[in-house]
């Protein structure tokens, strides 16, 4: 499928996330063989290395990264997502968990954040920057709301470069994942979009260059699980 762009992408992504909300976390765990929890923990530990203060978890979804950030000793967490159904699902779960007291969900647009300038010590995004309709604007907003010396942490899918592993991964991504996830969720199109959006998204080096253009400094990319995902960290000047 063609990956939507602009306002069409914003509407499409919101609709698809709403459609798979009930089984979203289950599928993430099944399709990653449980490794997604380790990826989020790595991102949460990076966020815990920021200066003390509030953390913005952007594209927070059902709040798994927000909870991991609190467990890592950081926060409180402002959890922002533009899909209200995802936030409602996560909020209902967090009521039964101790982390919930330090997580404050809000429905909002990552390209127009409902936060003041220099208001958070860290910004995190797990598997969300790929879904922004205007990536440059989203990165600029992340930079705007960070305090001087604040830290950005982005966890995103990437394309493995190992010549032995890459073809196997692409077969899984385009053939196995949409079939299995579509059967469980009832929406194969959402997972075809996932596969195609990963292929179409910026490489780690390209994302790092975009972050530098947005004003971030000391941008570092760390591949995880043979490059299936990349953990990118950066700082706002002033530390």
UniProtKB/TrEMBL annotation:
Enzyme class at the top of the EC tree: transferase
Catalysis: reaction(s): a 2-demethylmenaquinol + S-adenosyl-L-methionine = a menaquinol + S-adenosyl-L-homocysteine + H(+)
EC number, UniProt record: 2.1.1.163
Database matches in Gene3D superfamilies: Vaccinia Virus protein VP39
Pathway assignment: Quinol/quinone metabolism; menaquinone biosynthesis; menaquinol from 1,4-dihydroxy-2-naphthoate: step 2/2
Recorded GO MF terms: demethylmenaquinone methyltransferase activity
SUPFAM superfamilies noted in UniProt: S-adenosyl-L-methionine-dependent methyltransferases
Keywords from the UniProt entry: Menaquinone biosynthesis, Methyltransferase, S-adenosyl-L-methionine, Transferase, Ubiquinone
InterPro entries: SAM-dependent_MTases_sf, UbiE/COQ5_MeTrFase, UbiE/COQ5_MeTrFase_CS
A biological-process GO annotation: ubiquinone biosynthetic process
Any matching Pfam family: Ubie_methyltran
UniProt: S-adenosyl-L-methionine binding residues: 62, 81, 109-110
Family recorded in the similarity comment: Belongs to the class I-like SAM-binding methyltransferase superfamily. MenG/UbiE family.
Physiological role: Methyltransferase required for the conversion of demethylmenaquinol (DMKH2) to menaquinol (MKH2).
Entries under PANTHER family matching the protein: 2-METHOXY-6-POLYPRENYL-1,4-BENZOQUINOL METHYLASE, MITOCHONDRIAL, METHYLTRANSFERASE
Protein name (record): Demethylmenaquinone methyltransferase
